Amino acid sequence: MNARIIDGKAISAAIKTEVAQRVHTLARQGITPGLAVVLVGEDPASQVYVRNKAAACEKAGLHSKVIRLASDTSEEALLDVVRELNNDASVHGILVQLPLPAQMNSSKVIETIAPAKDVDGFHISNAGLLMTGRPLVRPCTPYGIMKILESENTVVRGAEAVVVGASNIVGKPMALLLLAAGATVTLCNSKTRDLGAQTRRADILVVATGRPRMITGDMIKPGAIVIDVGINRQADGKLTGDVEFESACKVAGAITPVPGGVGPMTIAMLLVNTLEAAERCVHI
Ligand SMILES: Nc1nc(=O)c2c([nH]1)NC[C@@H]1CN(c3ccc(C(=O)N[C@@H](CCC(=O)O)C(=O)O)cc3)C=[N+]21
């Protein structure tokens, strides 16, 4: 058997087209959705992501600005920038690129962002709303994965879903979104005993560990849908996921590639979250 390769670029393009239409509708009411991305330091990977986000905004008709701060910026100076953006009516979404330099307390920075402008969905208030089943802003990567499942017509209700990796950014919100959609969810972490025994039960397997190729074909249930969140740069410069693609393809029913899978969806959902933050300004 050979897995169907899920085209995250195509799914994200369709979402971005829909965003562009809704941006056009808002424009008639005199509102242009605005995203502010704050980048502290010169991490080259972060620079690439930030450029991609800005380009995607421009293409969909959103306004975006990037605020670049030196890597030795103090936490208080960054908090001042965030507070200023909170008070800026032209800014509907604020994203502080992670990871932050060591002198910064990321939680404190995230908790300073106004929850309604927290388009990453990382603020404790958005995390709490998601946990209690009335989400406001959903984290972009898990939200994008739900859109992939929808686009693949995957039956989530009643399915066995296994999430590997329990981060606040991907694993935990992913588990909550799958649970809300009716899946039976197992959330694995780095201490999980016999990981393969867990992953082999999964109809839906989401892997977000940051460990290149750790999930191999023998750990996958035949016919499963496999979602690879990993983006690992190899020595040869190429990207690889957290799933060993070649062996996984022989067992899975469908699989997301890296690149071209989850990554583009994250950006598309960032646009959706920013658009919806702007739409909420009209409705209240
Ligand atoms: N506050 C915050 N929010 C984030 O959402 C956030 C962050 N910090 N820090 C870094 C990670 C990483 N991230 C990616 C987004 C898109 C791609 C993406 O579009 N990837 C393409 C190509 C990537 C390439 O070629 O380098 C793909 O997978 O096809 C990747 C990674 C968002 N992040």
UniProtKB/TrEMBL annotation:
One Gene Ontology cellular component: cytosol
Q: What would be an example GO MF term here?
A: methenyltetrahydrofolate cyclohydrolase activity
**CDD domains reported for this sequence:** NAD_bind_m-THF_DH_Cyclohyd
Q: What is its EC number?
A: 1.5.1.5, 3.5.4.9
Reaction(s) catalysed by this chain's protein: (6R)-5,10-methylene-5,6,7,8-tetrahydrofolate + NADP(+) = (6R)-5,10-methenyltetrahydrofolate + NADPH; (6R)-5,10-methenyltetrahydrofolate + H2O = (6R)-10-formyltetrahydrofolate + H(+)
Which keywords label this protein?
Amino-acid biosynthesis, Histidine biosynthesis, Hydrolase, Methionine biosynthesis, Multifunctional enzyme, NADP, One-carbon metabolism, Oxidoreductase, Purine biosynthesis
**Pathway in which this enzyme or protein is active:** One-carbon metabolism; tetrahydrofolate interconversion
The record's section on Pfam families has: THF_DHG_CYH, THF_DHG_CYH_C
Superkingdom of the source? Bacteria
Which residue ranges does the record assign to the Tetrahydrofolate dehydrogenase/cyclohydrolase catalytic domain?
A: 6-120
Q: Which GO terms describe its biological process?
A: L-histidine biosynthetic process; methionine biosynthetic process; purine nucleotide biosynthetic process; tetrahydrofolate interconversion
Question: Which parts of the sequence bind NADP(+)?
Answer: 165-167, 231
Gene3D superfamilies reported for this sequence: Leucine Dehydrogenase, chain A, domain 1, NAD(P)-binding Rossmann-like Domain
Q: Where is the Tetrahydrofolate dehydrogenase/cyclohydrolase NAD(P)-binding domain?
A: 139-280
Subunit structure, interactors included = Homodimer.
**Which family is it part of?**
Belongs to the tetrahydrofolate dehydrogenase/cyclohydrolase family.
Quote the function comment for this protein.
Catalyzes the oxidation of 5,10-methylenetetrahydrofolate to 5,10-methenyltetrahydrofolate and then the hydrolysis of 5,10-methenyltetrahydrofolate to 10-formyltetrahydrofolate.
Q: Name it.
A: Bifunctional protein FolD
Q: Which organism is it from?
A: Paralcaligenes ureilyticus
